[in-house]
């Protein structure tokens, strides 16, 4: 791992506030925000379009050579290109969330995406959010944070987010989806969601946005002097 760049690994379950906090931290410190969930979602979209079973290694593995993913960074943040097509807006639906969670349990998919994530962190200072950044992708990251919140709070935040975008899921459906995804992500055999031994736990259940950003900033200061 190239020690000249700074890496902040931000892991945790969905709805804990990772992307909101990571965006603010990236802006504050001049780091690049890498949303690794978007990369798994892009694979999920491809598998959905191919009408393949996202749980089946036999169905998904032969598709991987046909997938070219590029990440672009523009004014409005990270954009995902799937074989040249901008799919940034298409990967956020509840259906693609489930596809992403399913394909992310396949070892071949994780291996396929590992180099892409590591080479981004080797080139630039990053705040990278995901599930296994501190444990697998960037085990040498200078700063590791595990961001979490209660299931009710996470479901409420995700529900508000989806509602603002006009998605018609009820709070109960959002909560049930989230529990299913938590279970997939924490119980899978390869790179499951778990707190790295050297990660600092930040529980955002009772924290507002500014307080969460302050808590993370304090940890960055302690670890890097920035
Ligand atoms: O962070 P997100 O909700 O956009 O991620 C979508 C899915 O991708 C999530 O359910 C699990 C998977 N994922 C992963 O396995 N490893 C990562 N580093 C990021 C996401």
Descriptive overview:
The protein is globular and about 50 Å long. With 226 residues, the protein is of the alpha/beta class. α1 (18-29) packs across α9, α4 runs parallel beside α8 (171-187) and α7 crosses α8. The protein has a five-stranded parallel beta sheet, with helices on both faces. A three-stranded antiparallel beta sheet has the order 3-4-5, covered by helices on one side. The mean pLDDT is 96. It has one domain: 3-Layer(aba) Sandwich (Rossmann fold). It is built from nine helices and eight strands. 39% of the residues are buried. The site of 2'-deoxycytidine-5'-monophosphate has 15 residues, from α2, α4 and α8.
In the CATH hierarchy, what is the class?
Alpha Beta
Bound small molecules, by name, code or SMILES, are: 2'-deoxycytidine-5'-monophosphate
Number of helices: 9
Spatial arrangement of strands, main beta sheet? 2-6-1-7-8
For CATH, the homologous superfamily is named as: P-loop containing nucleotide triphosphate hydrolases
Q: Beta fraction of the residues? A: 15-25%
Shape by Cα distribution: globular
**Average pLDDT value?**
96
Distance between the termini: 20 Å
Q: Would you give the CATH topology?
A: Rossmann fold
State the major sheet: 5 strands, parallel
* Structural class by helix and strand composition: alpha/beta
């Amino acid at each position: 791992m190239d020690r000249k760049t700074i890496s902040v690994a931000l892991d945790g379950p969905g709805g804990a506030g990772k992307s909101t906090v990571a965006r603010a931290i990236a802006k504050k410190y001049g780091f690049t925000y890498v949303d690794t969930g978007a990369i798994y979602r892009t694979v999920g979209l491809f598998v959905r379009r191919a009408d393949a079973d996202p749980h089946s290694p036999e169905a998904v593995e032969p598709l991987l050579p046909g997938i070219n993913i590029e990440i672009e960074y523009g004014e409005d943040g990270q954009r995902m290109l799937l074989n040249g097509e901008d799919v940034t807006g298409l990967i956020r639906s509840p259906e693609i969330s489930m596809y992403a969670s399913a394909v992310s349990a396949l070892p071949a998919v994780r291996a396929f995406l590992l180099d892409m994530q590591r080479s981004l962190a080797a080139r630039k200072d990053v705040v990278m959010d995901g599930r296994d950044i501190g444990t697998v992708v960037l085990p040498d990251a200078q700063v590791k944070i595990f961001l979490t919140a209660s299931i009710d709070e996470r479901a409420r935040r995700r529900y508000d987010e989806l509602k603002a975008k006009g998605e018609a899921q009820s709070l109960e459906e959002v909560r049930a989806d989230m529990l299913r995804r938590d279970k997939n992500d924490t119980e899978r055999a390869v790179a499951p969601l778990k707190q790295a031994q050297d990660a600092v736990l930040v529980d955002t259940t009772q924290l507002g946005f500014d307080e969460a950003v302050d808590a993370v900033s304090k940890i960055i200061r302690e670890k890097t002097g920035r």
